Amino acid sequence: MLNVDGSCLGTPIRAGFGGVIRNMAGFYLSGFSSYIPNSSDILFAELTAIHRGLLLAMEMRIEEMACYSDSLLSIRLITDQASKFHTYAVLFQDIKDLLSSRNYSIQHCLREENHCADFMVKIGASSIEDFSTHATPPNNLLTMLRNDAMETFFPKA
């Protein structure tokens, strides 16, 4: 399972993306985060998170997986027929190619179900790293992963 997220945070705005890859039992396999220099485009951050997460899963030789994003717009642009003249048409096609090259699917999830990926985005947006993988979960992520594995949900604030 791959959870991804993109975000634009702070003043001045810093864009970033991140995600978490877990096995079917919910155990952490890998995570990633990145800063996107010179951008405040949330759609680009969301799409880049999906793209880079799928690439990482392929590098890890994961053959079957569901990718979850809380960006309904991104998912619609990928799964529906988007204009070939859209600014991100090439990125849409790259994602579609990755999805079809393995037994991968993409699905929408609620923001409340995506808090582990949101945590990784904050690491990415606050760093200067182009792309970092995290072989072990950052300490503050451990509790969130545990809550996800136990299917603990928290109401919206």
Task: Report on this structure.
It is built from 5 helices and 6 strands. It has 157 residues and is an alpha/beta fold. It has one domain: Ribonuclease H-like superfamily/Ribonuclease H (Nucleotidyltransferase, domain 5). Strands 5-4-1-2-3-6 form a 6-stranded mixed beta sheet. The radius of gyration is 15 Å and the shape is globular. The relative contact order is 0.24. The model has no long low-confidence stretch (mean pLDDT 88).
Number of domains: 1
How much is the radius of gyration in Å?
15 Å
Task: State the distance separating the first and last CA atoms.
Answer: 26 Å
Shape: globular
Number of helices: 5
Query: What is the count of β-strands?
Result: 6
What is the CATH C-level name? Answer: Alpha Beta
Give the CATH superfamily: Ribonuclease H-like superfamily/Ribonuclease H
